[in-house]
Each structure stands twice: as structure tokens, then as C-alpha cells.
Amino acid sequence: MSGALVDTHCHLQLEDYRDDLHEVLKRAREANVVRMIAVGFNLRTSRLAVELASRFEQIYATVGVHPHDAKEFNERTIDELRKLARREKVVAIGEIGLDYYRNLSPKGKQRYAFERQLELAGELGLPVVIHDRDAHEDVAITLERYINVFKVNISGVMHCFSGDWELAKRCLDVGFYISIAGPVTYPNSADLRQVASKVPIDRLLVETDSPWLAPQHRRGRRNEPAYVKFVARKVAELRRMPFGKLADITTQNAVKLFGIQI
Ligand SMILES: [Zn+2]
Ligand SMILES: [Zn+2]
Q1: Is this prediction's pTM over 0.85?
Q2: DSSP secondary-structure letter at 146?
Q3: 36: CA distance to ligand 2 center in Å?
Q4: CA 183: distance to chain centroid?
Q5: Does residue 171 sit in helix, strand or coil?
Q6: Cys-Cys crosslink for 254: which of 6, 7, 70, 229, Cβ 3.0 to 4.6 Å?
Q7: Model confidence over 117-151: pLDDT tens digits?
Q8: d(CA 26, CA 67)
Q9: Ligand nearest to the CA of 133
């Protein structure tokens, strides 16, 4: 299985893939992308992710409510998520977090949904998939408080990492993984390239965030899991490391964090 990759974050459950999912999965297989994690971002897309995972051996699922959808989050949402999280092949709570770039939900609601879902992950013993856009300080402080002060036993990943090395260090200090996505191939990503080359190799993951964030040469078009190879290739180049080795180690990391089977 040398050189096999895991796309640790995609949204294959979306309508974007309705017409050609089988071809998308075939291209993933041809690119040696052996596992994919379909990430939910509200109750609807979490249910769809769980359903997709039950149909395809190579797909796993996460369930959670994204900061954009936090405005609809309430006690019943937590009960629903708790039920969904017990379904087979659900490997994490996510994506959850804070997004102050688009602010589609009020900040207070975002924080409430984020914190309740961190507690749920602690209760269920599942890792979390964190979405952080322009909310670096609040995300870092929240994780530090839950892990170091409240002693909630959670691990997780900063998905599509977009901060600088200072933020990466704080996330690594609380035991988190850093996941690199397509923007590492964009010309104006000096901070991200620095992070991608400095993160300890045993804490590094790769992802596509499909259908969004296609790599540079396909920018603006629909992304798909096969293209995680372009992310991995760029990261390997930055670290001056053979591609196969980077693939193998990031795949082992995904197995370890999410408990997926290959
Ligand atoms: Zn996200
Ligand atoms: Zn996502």
C-alpha cells in the first residue's frame, strides 16, 4: 500500500457529485486515494455523510454543525448529533468551529455551538474536525481552555489550516493535528508553506475540502478527492521528502487519529 493517501476532509455527500460519483471514486482509486472522510456541516449533510459511508467501504463520515449553521443550533441538535455519532463508520465530530470571515451566524451562537460540540466529542470519545476562518485567537483559546483547564479529553485536527506558525504551535501543544489543503499550492501562501514544512511529520494530515479549494492548476473548478495527491506532492516537495514516504506517514496519522481501517 505504499504511497496510498487518505483525503481526510471532503464533502462527497453533496449534490455536486450526484451525477458522477462513481467516476469520482474511480479517479480517487486510480490516484491511490484509498480512504476518504465525508464531513458533515449541519444535520442534513451529516445524515447524508453517514449514509454514503454505509454504501462505500472506502468512505467514512463525520457529523457536526459548522459555524455557518450555528444559528439553527439548539438542545435538540445535540441529541440528534449524539444519535448520529453512534452510527457505524462515524469517526469524528465536525466540522465545528468559528468563522468570523463570513459571520453567517452571530458570534455568540457560533461559540455556543462550538463549545457544546466539543463537550459532545469529549463525552463520546471522538476526535473533532475544526473549521477556523479569521477566528484564530478565539479557536486557540477555546481549545486551550477545554483541554488544559477543563481537562476534556479530546484530540482533533485543524482542517484546511490557514494560520501562521504561531497558531500551529498552539494547536500542536494541545495535541492536535494540522491538515493541509489545496491553498498550499496557491502563489500567495507563504505562511501556509512554512507551516506545511515545519509541522512535525507525525502530526500532519492532507485533505482536499472538495468540492471547494481545488489546487492551483484547477482553481475555480470543482475539486475531488483524487487531487489530494497534488496537495501531498506540494507538501513533500516543501519538506524535501519522497512523495511515497509523505503519503505513507500522513496515511498512518489518519488511521491513528480517526481509527479508520485500511
Ligand atoms: Zn471548513
Ligand atoms: Zn469542509
Answers
A1: yes
A2: I
A3: 13
A4: 14
A5: helix
A6: 6
A7: 999 999 999 999 999 999 999 999 999 999 999 99
A8: 32
A9: 1
Task: Dig out the grid coordinates for 55 from the structure.
Answer: 454504501
pLDDT tens, residue by residue, 141-182: 999 999 999 999 999 999 999 999 999 999 999 999 999 999
- Residue showing cell 455557518: 68
> How far does the centroid of ligand 1 lie from the alpha carbon of residue 166, in Å?
20
Distance from chain centroid for Cα 196 = 15
Question: What is the rounded average pLDDT for all residues in the chain?
Answer: 97
Ligand nearest, relative to CA of residue 41:
2
CA-CA distances (angstroms) from residue 245 to 30, 110, 209, 241, 252?
A: 18, 38, 22, 7, 11
| 175 touches 203 (CB < 8 A) | no
- Which pLDDT tens digit goes with each residue over 218-257? 999 999 999 999 999 999 999 999 999 999 999 999 999 9
